[in-house]
Design goal:
- This protein is mostly beta strands.
- Helices cover 0% and strands 52% of the residues.
- Strands 2, 4, 5, 6, 9, 10 and 11 form a 7-stranded mixed beta sheet that branches. A 4-stranded antiparallel beta sheet has the order 1-3-8-7, with no helix packed on it.
Length: 121
C-alpha cells in the first residue's frame, strides 16, 4: 500500500514558478514509477511528466523545457517533485501525483488527492 500526498499548489502569475511536492508513504516506493497528471475543468486527465524506478524521465511536449520532474528516494525520503517554470494560463489545473507498478500509465495503482494550480494574469 502506498499513500500519496501532494503539496505546493497555489496561485501564481503567468510566467512565474511553482514547485509541487508529493510525499509517499508505504513500502517499496523506490520500485514504483512515479508521475504527475493534471486535469483542467472539462478536460481529460493527462500525464504531464513521469520518472521510472531507474530514473528515466518523460515530459509531455506541452511542458518540455519548462517543467522538470525529479524524485528523491535517498534516506527513505520518498519524495516526488515537479518544478514548474514559465507557467502559462493553460497550465492551470488540479495536479495529481501517481504511482504505478505496471508497464504503462493506462493503469495507475495509487493516486494522490490533488493540488490546485491557478495561473493569473
Amino acid at each position: 500500500q502506498v499513500q500519496l500526498v501532494e503539496s505546493g499548489g497555489g496561485l501564481v502569475q503567468a510566467g512565474g514558478s511553482l514547485r509541487l511536492s508529493c510525499t509517499a508513504s508505504g513500502r517499496a516506493f523506490s520500485t514504483y514509477a512515479m508521475g504527475w497528471f493534471r486535469q483542467a475543468p472539462g478536460k481529460e486527465r493527462e500525464l504531464v511528466a513521469a520518472v521510472s524506478s531507474f530514473g528515466s524521465k518523460y515530459h509531455a511536449d506541452s511542458v518540455k523545457g519548462r517543467f522538470t520532474i525529479s524524485r528523491d528516494n535517498a534516506n527513505a525520503k520518498n519524495m516526488l517533485y515537479l518544478q514548474m517554470n514559465s507557467l502559462k494560463f493553460e497550465d492551470a489545473a488540479v495536479y495529481y501525483c501517481a504511482a504505478r507498478k505496471g508497464s504503462t500509465w493506462s493503469r495507475v495503482d495509487y493516486w494522490g488527492q490533488g493540488t490546485q494550480v491557478t495561473v493569473s494574469s
